[in-house]
Amino acid sequence: MFLWTAPGRIQFPDDEIVFQTTASLVDHGSLAIAGIGHRTGEPPGRPPGTFGWAEGQDGRRYGFFGHGLSLVAAPMYALARVTAPVVPFAWTRAVRSDHFTFHVREARSDWYHLVVSLTHCFVTAATAWLLVRWLAWLGFSARAALWTGVAYATGTAAWPYARTFLSEPLSAMVLLAAAVAIAQAHALRAGSPRAADCRLWLAGAAAGFAVHVHVLNLVAWPCLAGYALWPFGAGLKRHELKGRFFGTCLKALAPARRGLIGAALLAGLGLGSLLLGQWLRFGDPLETGRFGHYSEWTFPWTGLWAQMVAPGRSLWLYAPAATLGLVGLRAALRRAPAATWLALSLLATRWLVVSARTDWYGGWSLGPRHLVPAIPLLMIGFAAAVEELPRRTAAVRRLFWAGVVASAALTGWLATRSIFEWMIALTNDPRSAGQVLETSHFAWSASPIAGFFTLKPDVLALGAVRLQQAGHPGMSIGFGIVALVGLVAAGLVGRALWRARAGR
């Protein structure tokens, strides 16, 4: 599904910088890059060609985005390098040629960009699987867990973001992986303490890696720590804490001491390596390379309400399946309070911190870009709603499933067009009058939901069809194989849902 709506190209200047870092890692074992050769996303006053990188102490250029995605995408780049000599030239022409590009167009480079741009198709699929596993470990039924995974993949911004090479899809996967490991630790503590400790170590490693994907993921650490500690605090009595707070807490944590210490050390190792890398490159462990050119602290009011209700940025509009899950939030709090509070606290902390920055909107992206990593965890409300549905009236059940279908239709539509192309159209629209960002945030007429009707589809699969019509069927055959695999996977999920329904 994700591969069928992928554009096969790098759409954002941010993505191009991360792509160049990926290429440098694989080809040269270095983080140094060349940068983009023409003006792209530089703020006013900055020289053309300086977007996305800063000069290090050694005089070389380094991207200021997290390097975690480059590490994950390295196998895709290596695959592109291995296959480039044998791939037909025509395949590199399947990508739409009328788009703004950030690299010099030539066959080898186009193929590398095409293959690497598909990274998040696989990452997002893995995130949906992890979501199903998390809910299963929390005790939700197979039916609820599977439907929630399907709804996340098809009915939220996860689908259109799988088209990009931005960091948010990988952030979602890594943070969810940490939550899965913690849920497993909770479930295994009584029967297998050693296995529970190992799961906590995995959670710590995931949290440590998350800050390399995007430094904003650091704000998730207190939420994940609270989630890990929840069972130990839940059993404490108030009278036990009076006068001997620390001693009582340490005693309660004793069964998991090794796991918690190991998790803290691994998370600290991840953060320490990030700070060391920044010190080696820029001479300051707290300098990411942005040097204050791209954002600053501001009053959060605009970002706070815009990311909730603005037509161009509302979380609930661009993650409609998660919005449906609001009806199950109270049930989720009763059923899995620790996991639900993790989801809510992770959303709240990201929302507050991001809103206090002048770049809260995340550039020319779709919807609330910086809140996308919280969406899979928020889907716990959807799972609880599915569990409650059998006790609802037939009319409520029909309305709920109609909402699920509508969610998939909306996000599937958003996954077939380019938000970057739409933002260029807004920039050239006289009605924006130099206020393109404000217009894109707050004007209903500027919402991509409606605006995408004016754009051509931007999917690689259509390029493959055009190649077939021109006598080059190879890529279409590849997409046919992808379709068959997808149908088999859908059949397996459908069978599992049928069995879960029959055994309910």
UniProtKB/TrEMBL annotation:
This is Uncharacterized protein. It comes from Nannocystis punicea. Keywords: Membrane, Transmembrane, Transmembrane helix. The lineage of its organism: Bacteria, Pseudomonadati, Myxococcota, Polyangia, Nannocystales. The chain crosses the membrane at residues 69-91, 111-132, 144-162, 169-188, 200-230, 260-280, 340-358, 370-387, 399-420, 477-498. It comes from the Bacteria.
